[in-house]
């Protein structure tokens, strides 16, 4: 998920709230930052504020639609009919006026993801490891893996970038969120849990000085 909001208080509130809902959250404070983040890694869904410094939300939406059909929910304090029409005709999938109830926002996001599911492909796999990101179910060689929600999120991060070394700081930010203030050794704890569940400690490589990579052992 990408949260695009220039108000730091609202941005942090949404980031933390969706983090606790099990989402991987990235944030941007400006339209330019949002487009850069989306280009770096396409999010599953975008929460896009209309009133942004520089490029406003409508301009960001147009730029996104030139290259992607990622679900976009626009957030704004402007509740005029013309504004809603501009957002929806410009390619937004939904439109919610501030102030809103967080529970309603979560429900709308889940609805967007369900609608997008048939065309976006929700199954990640590498070698004989498979993860259904909607059902939150993982298997190895057809055998179900008993993983905690956090371990599933860590496996998802690795499966999204197979054979690429991911730093501990990136994994912390992706899986635990930017608001996490605990010990970064928590990554090692969950890597051990994953290795035990996979039954192959060599599948998740430790890349010295960097972090971890999902990679088959060289023959």
Account of the 3D structure:
The protein is built from 8 helices and 12 strands. The protein is of the alpha/beta class. It folds into 2 domains: 119 residues, Rossmann fold, CATH 3.40.50.2300; 92 residues, Arc Repressor Mutant, subunit A (Orthogonal Bundle). A 5-stranded parallel beta sheet has the order 2-1-3-4-5, with helices on both faces. A 4-stranded antiparallel beta sheet has the order 6-7-8-9, covered by helices on one side. Helix 2 runs parallel beside helix 3. The model has no long low-confidence stretch (mean pLDDT 87).
Mean pLDDT: 87
The counted number of beta strands is 12
Order of adjacent strands in the largest pleated sheet:
2-1-3-4-5
Let me know the largest β-sheet: 5 strands, parallel
Given as residue ranges, the uncertain stretches (5+ residues, pLDDT < 50) are none
Kindly report the CATH topology of the largest domain.
Rossmann fold
The CATH architecture assignment of the largest domain turns out to be 3-Layer(aba) Sandwich
Query: Can you identify the CATH superfamily of the largest domain?
Result: Response regulator
Query: Total helix count?
Result: 8
The outline comes out as elongated
How many domain modules? Answer: 2
Proportion of residues in β-strands: 15-25%
> Rg from C-alpha positions?
19 Å
């Amino acid at each position: 998920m990408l949260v695009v909001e220039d108000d730091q208080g609202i941005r942090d509130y949404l980031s933390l709230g969706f983090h606790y809902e099990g989402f991987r959250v990235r944030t941007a404070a400006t339209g330019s930052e949002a487009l850069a983040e989306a280009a770096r890694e396409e999010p599953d869904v975008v929460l896009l504020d209309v009133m942004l410094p520089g490029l406003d939300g409508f301009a960001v939406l147009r730029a996104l639609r030139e290259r992607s059909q990622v679900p976009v929910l626009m957030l704004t304090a402007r509740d005029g009919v013309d504004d809603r029409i501009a957002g929806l005709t410009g390619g937004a999938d939904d439109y919610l006026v501030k102030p809103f109830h967080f529970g309603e926002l979560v429900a709308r996001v889940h609805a967007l993801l369900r609608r997008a599911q048939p065309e976006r492909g929700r199954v990640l796999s590498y070698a004989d490891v498979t993860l259904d990101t909607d059902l939150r179910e993982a298997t190895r060689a057809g055998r179900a893996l008993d993983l905690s929600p956090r371990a599933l999120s860590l496996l998802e991060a690795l499966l999204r970038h197979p054979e690429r070394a991911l730093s501990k700081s990136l994994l912390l930010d992706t899986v635990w969120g930017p608001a996490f203030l605990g010990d970064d050794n928590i990554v090692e704890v969950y890597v051990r849990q994953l290795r035990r569940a996979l039954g192959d400690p060599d599948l998740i490589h430790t890349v010295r000085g960097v972090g971890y990579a999902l990679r088959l052992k060289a023959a």
